[in-house]
Each structure stands twice: as structure tokens, then as C-alpha cells.
From TrEMBL:
Residue ranges annotated for the TonB-dependent receptor plug domain, each copy included: 99-202
InterPro entries from the UniProt entry: CarboxyPept-like_regulatory, Plug_dom, Plug_dom_sf, TonB-dep_rcpt-like
UniProt xrefs under Pfam families: CarbopepD_reg_2, Plug
UniProt protein name: TonB-dependent receptor plug domain-containing protein
Amino acid sequence: VRDGSTKDPLIGTNVFILGTSLGGASNNDGIYTIPNVGLGTFTIKVSYIGYQSKELEIVIESLKIYTQDFDLDYVTIEGKVVEVTAQAKGQMDAINKQLKAKSIVNIVSSDRIQELPDANAAESVARIPGVSIRREGGEGNKVVIRGLSPKYNKITVNGTNLASTDPDDRSTDLSMISQYMLDGIEVTKAGTPDQEADVLGGTVNFILKKAQPGLHGNLVSQGMYNGLKKTQDDYKLVLDISNRFLNDRIGVLGQIDFENRNRSSHDLGAFYQNAPADLDSINPLQLTN
């Protein structure tokens, strides 16, 4: 099987006999083999991605080796229109920091965070490669980095360690942190000399927003549909206002996050009872020498 214009062999061409399970694929030299073909009239079909398929009827009158070459013509495949959009402005600085980092770091800007309707900061972190989350009541709350448990990871805010929220280990619940108050997220997946040696998995650093010069306001509203309860009364409202005073020396940023969400779930339990069994009997134990 060759290219009709260049005569170059086509590797991996699908060659098969219609109506049967007999067929094969061409090798590096474009040669194919279809063994154990009986007598009769057959139709061979040849197909290759990007080329026009061909069908040829052949008649096998005696048991011998038949040779049939095919030259396929290139064809343009037209698909649906795909619109590609890019976010260069908000993510450009984050990408540059990521490229210049001395270790394996993923950085997400605030513009990228606010593009998706995540429930909290934990679910925003989960969109980073190599990071997953644990869920409670359908909402993400703890971060898993490189498959290691949340107790082996560290959460920081502007470089300051965030206290553990679990009485049994060092894990931190992130379900109460709003992603709309973050200016960026930095996830370090490997230890470096400038970090504390108390992490096996990785470190998640939340960068808080800062008030920009001038009066700024932002309002985010979300409506939700609960498919489990068939309700439409779930909603989320986020309002933040910021400004700077005294020649931009002092900045004030306030945010109100109001949310109403029904996190009902279906529970399935089972039990059994073995009525005739009696477990109150005592078997004596005797030791003899």
C-alpha cells in the first residue's frame, strides 16, 4: 500500500475482506498479508486515516499466492469549526513564575480561579495536575498531593503555616476558604532547601488579594439546581469592595460570601440477625501438666 503521489509506503494501513473477519495491517514497508482465504469472489477494502478508502473485487479460482497493490490518494478531512480562546493577560505572570521556579511548582492566577464555579478553595486546587481532593457531603475539603494523604501536606497563607483543623492529624479543612478572596494559588510538589522539612507530599500556598488603588467592587452570583433533591433554591452571592487610603499606604479589602446549598445524600445500610445463635455460653479452659 503506497501513497498515490509520492509512492511512499503507508504504514499501518487497514486491509480487510468485507463480510469476513479476515484482514491485516501493512508493515513498515507497506506490505500486508491476508492468509487462509478460500475460493470465491471477495471485496477487499483498504482504509488509512487522511486518505481516500478504496474497494476492489477479486476472484480467487485456485489456491495460490495473489499480489494486489493499492495506491491511495490523500484527502482533506473537514470537521466542525473549533473556536480556541486564550487567557494570556491574567495567567501570563503565573506562567512566567512557574517557568522560573527552581522546583516543581504549579501557579494559578486569580482570573483563572474565578473562571469556574468551584465551591471553595479546595476544589480550585484540585484542578492542578497531580492534585486531588477528599470530599465530605459532596464538597471538597482536604487536599491530596501526589497520592499522599492530607496529613502529609502543608497549607500556608502568604507563606505562613495554617493551623490544623483535625484533632487526630495535621490535615487542614479548606471548605471554609472562599476562592474569590485569593489572588493566586502556588502548589509545590517537591521539597526545596528554602522550605521547612515537615512535608512529604507538597505545599499549597494561598496568596490573598490586596486592595488596588482606587475604589473597586465585584459581585458574583450563582444559581444551582440540585438533581438529587429536585430543588432550585441553592445559590451563592459574593460581594467584595476594596480601596486604598493615605497615599495608597493602607489598603482595605472586605468580602461578604453568602451561600445556601442543600447537601443531602442517600444512605444505604444493611444488617442481619442470626436468631438461633447463643453467644453467652462460657467454655472452661483447663491447663494440665
